[in-house]
Structure formats: structure tokens, C-alpha cells
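Dear H.,

Thanks for agreeing to be a second pair of eyes. The structure we're designing against is below in C-alpha cell form, covering all 363 positions.
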């Protein structure tokens, strides 16, 4: 005689909603997803044997999950009870020692730990070190760069520029302008090989320099269109020529707000005299060491990645032609960058960074 079917598992609506969301998760651990599905079936009165077949566990496991849910509810849903699961291979003291040494020491003659050097130092396997670092989000191999601006007018300039991004003035054009100087026309010493199935494209690591150009570019914040011109040099004379190009392209009657950096060329006396005669131009300078605030820098990154880095240019005219092709393609289907950060949120981050730097210096 078969055992009677277990009664439906009592479950609140809130618990059911949580388990339904977990059962559809693509990122939760597989065991948790299995348990959520099993408990939902149990709440519908499905027999344990059928649940075990559908979920892929044994009936004993299903009964244990039911009993634990009755006892604990959703608490400790993803935990393994003491005495179950694989035994720890190293002690918590060893784990703490590995974490401490990773964060606060360096191997002899080196700048940072690797899995192998730390494994040898701690007397464990490289896989163990890698697992500990992964679980705790420790990444000794990564190095991010930063620079906190020391501009005394940082807050004023930041608020001015972010205000143009988030609330641009009426009957005006907002342009992010900068120069990408010394763009090199690099020609590879041997022909590149095309991509084929099972192998990516290849190119020689060495190259021949065939001259340089300087790209002046102005990104329209609203439309994503870019006005660009290449010049041989990078002086205030070329900057003035580019301002005149912008003046000719922007319809009369519209004010022109230009966001740019503090390069001396932008503040030359000849430039100041020209601006006094062309009063619809308004220059807005970003804080020093804050190129991230100028959106055209993001466009320069795309230009380099998509048109220049893999290119091979036998001459400067070839390089300029490639830049102009990219400009034309960009303006045929422009996509503006969306700025969302407020001046207050940026100031809060910068304040935290400065405070952290002061703590490091004082140690």
C-alpha cells in the first residue's frame, strides 16, 4: 500500500510571490531555483515523487525542503544546514590571512599578488586563492586610474557645465569642443590578415609613422552631430579657424555655448578679441583634470576604437579621409549621449575621493 500524498504546503501570498520570482531567476544559484520550484509545486499539492521528477532531485530532498520551509519559512533559503555539503578545505583563519596579506602586503620585489604567488605564500592551491578572491570581489590584477581635480573653481565650473547638459538654454546650441592632437598615420610593416572562421583578424605589432594631424571636433549635445576639421598644427590660429567654421554652420540668431578645456590656445588674446566681436559665442571651461566632463572625449574614444586603432594609413591624407568617412557616417545617423548625473551627485563623489586621499596621505 502506497504512502498517502502529502497535503498542500501552507504558504502566504508574499512567500509565493518571492518564490515565483526566484524560480524564474537567471542569476540565482541553481540549487535555490530548484528549491523555489519544488516549494511552489508542493503548495499546489503535487506529490513529492512527481516534484522530485520535475525538479531533478530525490524525494528525500523534497521532503527535507518542505519540512524546513514549515520550520523556517523563507529564512535561510539559500543556506546549507550544518553538517551538510562539502567540508571546508581550509580554515577561516587561513582565509582571513590570505585576504589580509592580499590587501596589506606585497610579494618581494613585486607590486601586487598573483594567484600563484599568493598560493605559494599561503601554502594552498592557486584555485583556492582564485575562489577566495572571486567570492570577496578582490582583484589584485586590476588597476584603475583616476585624477581628482584641484581646481579652486571646481564647483562653479561643474555646476555651469552640468547645467548646460541637463537644462540647455532656449534658442541656443550647446557644443562640446576639443582637439585630438597628434593623431598618427600608422602604416603596418606587413599586410594584415583577414578574419576567418576560428581565428580573428591579425596585424603586425610594428608600424611605420607617416606623419600626424590634429582633429578639431565639436559635438552637438542635443543631436549628436559632430563638426570636425583636420589641421596640420595645433595653435590658436587653427582654433580660430574652427570657430569660424562653427559660426558659418550654426544658423544666425542662435546663441552658441561651447564647452571646452583650459588649454591656453582657447584663451589667447586673438581669440578673446574675436569673441568680443562675435557675441553669440559663450565659452564654458570645464575644471582642470576633468576631461570626463566633456562629452566629445567619449566620441573621440569611439572614433579611435572604430576607425583608427585597426587602420593602416600610408599617408596623412589617407588618415584624414578615414576620419572624414567616420564623421560622415556619424552625422548620417547621429546618436547623442545621454547625461544623467547631477552636479550634486558628482560633487558628493569628488568630496569622498578627496577625503579618502587625505586619509591615505595622513597615514
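And this is the sequence the design step returned. I haven't edited it by hand at all.
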Amino acid at each position: 500500500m502506497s504512502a498517502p500524498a502529502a497535503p498542500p504546503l501552507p504558504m502566504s501570498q508574499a512567500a509565493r510571490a518571492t518564490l515565483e520570482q526566484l524560480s524564474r531567476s537567471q542569476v540565482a544559484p541553481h540549487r535555490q531555483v530548484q528549491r523555489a520550484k519544488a516549494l511552489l509545486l508542493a503548495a499546489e499539492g503535487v506529490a513529492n515523487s512527481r516534484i522530485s521528477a520535475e525538479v531533478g532531485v530525490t524525494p528525500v530532498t523534497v521532503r527535507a525542503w518542505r519540512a524546513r520551509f514549515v520550520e523556517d519559512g523563507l529564512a535561510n533559503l539559500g543556506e546549507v544546514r550544518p553538517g551538510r555539503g562539502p567540508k571546508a578545505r581550509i580554515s577561516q583563519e587561513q582565509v582571513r590571512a590570505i585576504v589580509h596579506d592580499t590587501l596589506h602586503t606585497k610579494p618581494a620585489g613585486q607590486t601586487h599578488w598573483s594567484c600563484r604567488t599568493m598560493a605559494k605564500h599561503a601554502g594552498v592551491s592557486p584555485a583556492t586563492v582564485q575562489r577566495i578572491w572571486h567570492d570577496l570581489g578582490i582583484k589584485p590584477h586590476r588597476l584603475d586610474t583616476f585624477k581628482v581635480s584641484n581646481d579652486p573653481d571646481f564647483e562653479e565650473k561643474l555646476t555651469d557645465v552640468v547645467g548646460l547638459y541637463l537644462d540647455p538654454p532656449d534658442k541656443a546650441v550647446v557644443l562640446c569642443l576639443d582637439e585630438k592632437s597628434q593623431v598618427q598615420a600608422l602604416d603596418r610593416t606587413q599586410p594584415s590578415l583577414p578574419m576567418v572562421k576560428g581565428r580573428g583578424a591579425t596585424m603586425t605589432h610594428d608600424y611605420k609613422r607617416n606623419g600626424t594631424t590634429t582633429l578639431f571636433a565639436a559635438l552637438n549635445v542635443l543631436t549628436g552631430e559632430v563638426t570636425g576639421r583636420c589641421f596640420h598644427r595645433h595653435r590658436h590660429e587653427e582654433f580660430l579657424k574652427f570657430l569660424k567654421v562653427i559660426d558659418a554652420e550654426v544658423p544666425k540668431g542662435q546663441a552658441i555655448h561651447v564647452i571646452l578645456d583650459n588649454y591656453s590656445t582657447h584663451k589667447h588674446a586673438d581669440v578673446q578679441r574675436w569673441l568680443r566681436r562675435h557675441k553669440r559665442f559663450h565659452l564654458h571651461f570645464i575644471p582642470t583634470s576633468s576631461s570626463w566632463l566633456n562629452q566629445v572625449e567619449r566620441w573621440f574614444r569611439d572614433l579611435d576604437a572604430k576607425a583608427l586603432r585597426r587602420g593602416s594609413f600610408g599617408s596623412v591624407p589617407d588618415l584624414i579621409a578615414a576620419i572624414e568617412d567616420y564623421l560622415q557616417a556619424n552625422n548620417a545617423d547621429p546618436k547623442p549621449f545621454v547625461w544623467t548625473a547631477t552636479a550634486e551627485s558628482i560633487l558628493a563623489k569628488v568630496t569622498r575621493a578627496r577625503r579618502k586621499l587625505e586619509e591615505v596621505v595622513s597615514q
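Two observations from my side: The chain has a mean pLDDT of 89. Residues 13 and 31 are 22 Å apart (CA to CA).

Warmly,
E.
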